[in-house]
Design goal:
The complex is a heterodimer. Chain A is built from 10 helices and 13 strands. Chain A is α/β, with parallel strands linked by helices. By secondary structure, chain B is an all-alpha fold. Chain B has one domain. In chain B, 81% of the residues lie in helices and 0% in strands. In chain B, helix 2 packs antiparallel against helix 3. The two termini of chain B are 19 Å apart. The chains are: A alpha/beta, B mainly alpha. The interface between A and B is medium-sized, with 26 and 23 residues. Chain B: GO terms for molecular function: ABC-type transporter activity.
């Protein structure tokens, strides 16, 4: 096995009663990689993250974390993992500082780390505030702080920016990139294709429990750029479509030299349109999370 | 078993309970009521320490049981327990941390009962030993209810019934022989009898049997709950 691999799954299949929720999931995620699992609600993202974090045992298949093959993740791996999951799991009556103090004691971390990590997520001024007085964005940043405090080697993020305003989402994106630069492997589930494109080195598109496409987000978009056109909007309001090839170069040059161009775009699809092409439905499809019925 | 983690859970619980009025009141209500009643009500031919023993029995049957069930159920409902268990805290470390906190705080309450009852020397030690045994069984029953319950609401509905049985049966049994026949099978009734006879305690086989049976049933409920729900 490649020792650079931090997360590896082989033929993971999961059934809940008679329903197949995941079907032969094979993933290989390298150290320092940000991997995005994209799919609509009900695709099986949360089920897969629960299997990877040892909360669920797959019906069949093998999960490896840090190169150790196990049917189910054992507890000693947990201290090297940070998690930001769907439910915050914060002690509402305790302050931000006390919430982190508990985990500092559990992990045997020096107390000084608490203030450092609170500053990092921008909660240093709210250290003495009780969690039940925090906004949703602040709570999510505190969960991030808790996940980062023990300097994990793998970070699992389940819809980390869901329901947050763009400014807070952006600050969390910066934190994720910072962790990646330190060599942390990040496993991210999202149905936000912009987030995935911005952050991820590789993404897997998950639909009805199956991985239907896998690769670098930009490469995926280029691969599905069937139209391969340029759309030019002129200052007079006219929209002109040109093939993205050498024969169009003269016309584009003419528009540019005459200063006629208002905007110019390629027809390269985004991840959402790639997903739609493959499945006939969008990433925001509002289906009930199949697996949630079972917990 | 990592004692640092047990201590971390213990300290967390200490801080959390100080801000949790619902649980905090469980610990102080009965010692306070007993203090007031014992010092303010004087009835002719009233048995020695009548109110202390009455409320100490209710304390055993109610406070450790309801607080353990409530704390466990809340941790499950709010997902904090899952986060702890996924942070390399073993279920046994968590239970020991929370259980030892409840045990200690209830023993502090028991000291108040002992002081109000003016127990001295060996009587003081016996009183606290009986209370310790009752608190332990009560914590186990509470842990069983807490692990089996999905949330605080379902824990409360079960706790109220169980708590009523263990705390009020010994009191009703004083006035009703029929109830007394049933009540004698509860640990709280047996401990109530011991408390009433402090200084002249005679240990009978059936008393030990009933206490052991209560403890085994409490353990079985807890193990069943733990196996089914794995705490998280």
């Amino acid at each position: 096995m490649n020792h650079n691999l931090q997360i590896h799954t082989k033929d993971i299949t999961m059934h809940f009663q008679n329903t197949k929720v995941l079907d032969n999931i094979n993933l290989s995620i390298a150290k320092g990689e940000i991997f995005g699992l994209l799919g609509p609600s009900g695709a099986g993202k949360t089920t897969l993250i629960k299997i990877l974090t040892g909360q669920l045992k797959p019906t069949s298949g093998v999960v490896s974390l840090f190169g150790k093959e196990k049917e189910r993740i054992e507890q000693e791996c947990m201290s090297q993992i940070g998690m930001v999951l769907d439910n915050t799991g914060l002690y509402e009556r305790l302050t931000c500082y006390d919430n982190l103090l508990l985990f500092a004691r559990i992990y045997g971390i020096d107390k000084s780390e608490i203030n450092i990590v609170l500053q990092k997520v921008g909660l240093d001024d709210a250290a003495k505030k009780c969690v039940n007085k925090l906004s949703k964005g602040m709570k999510q940043r505190l969960v991030f702080a808790r996940a980062l405090m023990h300097k994990p080697k793998i970070l699992f993020l389940d819809e980390p920016t869901s329901g947050l305003d763009p400014v807070i989402a952006s600050s969390l994106h910066s934190l994720v990139m910072e962790e990646k630069n330190k060599g942390t492997t990040v496993f991210l589930t999202t149905h936000n294709m912009e987030e995935a494109t911005k952050l991820c080195d590789n993404v897997a598109l998950l639909n009805k429990g199956e991985i239907i496409e896998l690769g670098n987000p930009y490469e995926l978009c280029r691969r599905y750029n069937h139209q391969n056109k340029l759309i030019i909007l002129t200052k007079s309001g006219e929209q002109i479509e040109l093939m993205n090839q050498a024969s169009s170069a003269m016309r584009v040059a003419d528009f540019l030299s005459n200063n006629e161009i208002e905007s110019i775009h390629s027809t390269e699809p985004n991840l959402e349109t790639v997903f739609m092409e493959l499945t006939g439905r969008g990433l925001d499809t509002d289906e009930h999370e199949k697996s949630s019925r079972y917990f | 078993m990592n004692m640092k983690k047990v201590a971390a859970i213990f300290r967390k619980q200490l801080k959390d309970t100080l801000k949790n009025k619902e649980v905090l009141i469980q610990f102080i209500m009965f010692p306070v009521i007993a203090t007031i009643m014992q010092n303010s009500i004087r009835i002719e031919d009233m048995p020695r320490n009548y109110f202390v023993i009455l409320f100490a029995t209710m304390y055993i049957g109610m406070s450790p049981l309801t607080s353990t069930a409530s704390i466990l159920a809340e941790e499950k409902e709010k997902n904090t327990l899952r986060v702890l268990l996924m942070s390399n805290v073993k279920a046994s470390e968590y239970l020991l941390g929370v259980g030892s906190y409840i045990f200690l705080i209830c023993m502090l309450g028991s000291v108040i009962f002992a002081v109000v009852g003016q127990y001295r020397g060996i009587e003081f030690v016996l009183f606290l030993s009986i209370m310790a045994l009752g608190i332990l069984i009560s914590i186990l029953i509470g842990a069983g209810i807490g692990t089996l319950s999905k949330n605080q609401m379902s824990a409360t509905s079960v706790t109220v019934i169980v708590m009523l049985i263990f705390s009020f049966l010994p009191m009703i049994a004083m006035f009703n022989e029929g109830v007394a026949k049933v009540s004698r099978f509860t640990f709280s009734q047996q401990l109530n009898d011991w408390l009433k006879g402090i200084g002249t305690i005679s240990i009978h086989v059936d008393t030990i049997g009933i206490l052991l049976l209560n403890m085994i049933v409490a353990l079985l409920i807890f193990v069943l709950g733990y196996r089914r729900c794995k705490l998280a």
